[in-house]
Write a structure and sequence with these properties.
Blueprint: E1 4-7, E2 10-13, E3 16-17, H1 18-25, E4 29-33, H2 34-48, E5 53-58, H3 65-73, E6 77-80, H4 83-91, E7 99-101, H5 108-117, E8 121-124, H6 127-140, E9 144-151, E10 173-174, H7 178-187, E11 191-197, H8 208-226, E12 233-235, H9 252-262, E13 270-273, H10 277-280, E14 284-296, E15 299-304, H11 313-317, E16 323-325, E17 336-342, E18 351-359, E19 365-368, E20 389-394, E21 397-402, H12 407-410
Parallel strand pairs: 4-20, 5-6, 5-13, 6-7, 7-8, 8-9, 9-10, 9-11, 11-12, 12-13, 15-17
Antiparallel strand pairs: 1-2, 2-3, 4-14, 14-15, 14-19, 16-19, 17-18, 20-21
Helix pairs in contact: 2-9, 5-6
Bound molecules: pyridoxal-5'-phosphate (PLP) and lysine (LYS).
Length: 419
């Protein structure tokens, strides 16, 4: 089921014509579907019912507080990686008791903030971090709930930049050191061992790497048990992929089922999922206008008003995202060419898509699909371009959930030298 559909020749988000949104709010803009966020979140929760579970949405995928609020209302927990993300969860009315804190570089300030708020768990990524958390907790006379993020050295078979579970990646603690680290944790003041976690990468299109990692982690849990170190939750991270092009990732229910199958002998272990992309990617599109069409030799360019600063994935990972017209043309009204869809930024790598066979005209609108995750959150002001607005469609209602930045906001906080 898709909440972005054509009705006659016009693309709609739920019950709203995309052209109407673009006319009212301008382009480029991100447009999200509330029903899609809810459906994707519920797919995880419904599937996970067989086991005690908590879905902690990965805030980095799409951190708009309206998105977080929609998920919080459904009971979601959150996976965060910074004080900024945690503040967003609080601003969105999220439950801090359902927050897990990942990330390799947690600062003293961030740890203190999270500890005082009373988050569910720190996912610890190094021995040095473990000591830092212990010292801060002891000083504040608080107990920090912790989990060790284990790096299981498993190939996630995804893009190298978004693979996180190999021993050469900076994430987590080497699986061979994990037992020693748990032993240390059990002796340090201010810590309460709660769980074990792993996250092997993003945009995984098969379950096999997850299950291979899980096998290694289950052996570790057994070893911990024998040492008398009890854990109450297992956090399997995020990483489930989505279909951008021809990928066929498993449906969340299949993925969750396969994980549940492996945990049948551990009914009291709470299972935590940290999906980001699988919830947010296909809940959003990026709408952009063609400013100019241009032909150099045999090359056709459609130069659009959105660039790599608005959607970085194609430039950074050579990621393919579908690009479709917002209004379908009657056949034979425009000639189709092989286009590179490029942005306004002064970089050769500034493109949204390459080699797309499309019949295009100046000023028409295009929609880049699957842009709800790692779209706005990775955007920047490069080339002094204001960040664009975000719109949430809810049935036939349209809400501007983030205003387009103004030109003045670009240099807010900057100042001239006194002379
Ligand atoms: C620790 C952690 N959890 C969850 C996620 C979310 O991943 P995804 O969006 O692929 O589900 C990430 C990002 O890769 C992550 O680093
Ligand atoms: N930003 C990446 C995913 C990285 C996930 C964070 N560990 C993407 O757009 O695919």
């Amino acid at each position: 089921m898709d909440y972005f559909n054509y009705r006659s020749e016009h693309l709609y988000a739920e019950d709203v014509n995309i052209n109407d949104i673009a006319t009212r709010y301008g382009t480029p803009c991100y447009i999200y579907s509330r029903a899609t966020f809810e459906r994707h979140y519920n797919a995880f929760v419904d599937a996970a019912k067989a086991h005690k579970n908590l879905v902690c949405y990965a805030v980095k995928a799409n951190s708009n507080i309206a998105v977080l609020n929609i998920l919080a209302k459904l009971g979601s927990g959150f996976d965060i990686v910074s004080q900024g993300e945690l503040s967003r969860v609080v601003a969105a009315g999220g439950d801090v008791n359902k927050v897990v804190f990942s990330g390799v570089a947690k600062t003293k300030q961030e740890i203190t903030y999270a500890l005082e708020l009373g988050i569910k768990c720190f996912n610890v990524e190094s021995i040095a971090e473990l000591h830092r958390i212990s010292e801060i907790a002891a000083e504040l006379e608080l107990i920090a709930p912790i989990s060790i993020r284990v790096n299981p050295d498993i190939d996630a078979k995804t893009h190298p930049y978004i693979s996180t579970g190999l021993k050469e990646n900076k994430f987590g603690i080497d699986i061979n050191q994990a037992i020693e680290v748990y032993k240390t944790a059990s002796k340090l003041p201010g810590l309460s061992i709660q769980g074990i976690d792993f996250h092997i990468g993003s945009q995984l299109t098969e379950v096999t790497p997850f299950l291979a990692a899980l096998d290694k982690i289950l052996l570790l849990i057994e070893e911990l048990n024998q040492l008398g170190i009890k854990i109450t939750h297992l956090d399997v991270g995020g990483g489930l992929g989505v279909p951008y092009q021809e990928e066929e990732p498993p449906h969340p229910s299949l993925y969750v089922d396969k994980i549940n199958d492996k945990l049948a002998h551990l009914p009291n272990l709470e299972l935590i999922f940290e999906p980001g992309r699988a919830i947010a990617a296909n809940a959003g599109i990026l709408v952009t206008k063609i400013e100019y069409l241009k032909q150099n030799q045999d090359k056709h360019f459609a130069i659009v008003d959105a660039g790599m600063n608005d959607l970085l994935r194609p430039s950074l990972y050579q990621a393919w995202q579908n690009i479709i017209p917002v209004t379908l043309k009657a056949e034979n009204t425009a000639k189709s060419y092989n286009y590179d869809i490029v942005g306004p930024v002064c970089e050769t790598g500034d493109f949204l898509g390459k080699d797309r066979d499309l019949a295009l005209s100046q000023n028409e609108l295009l929609a880049v699909r699957s842009a709800g995750a790692y779209g706005f959150t990775m955007s920047s002001n490069y080339n002094s371009r204001p960040r664009i607005c975000e719109i949430m469609v809810d049935g036939n209602q349209v809400h501007e959930i983030r205003q387009r930045e103004t030109i003045e906001q670009l240099y807010q906080g900057e100042c001239l030298l006194p002379c």
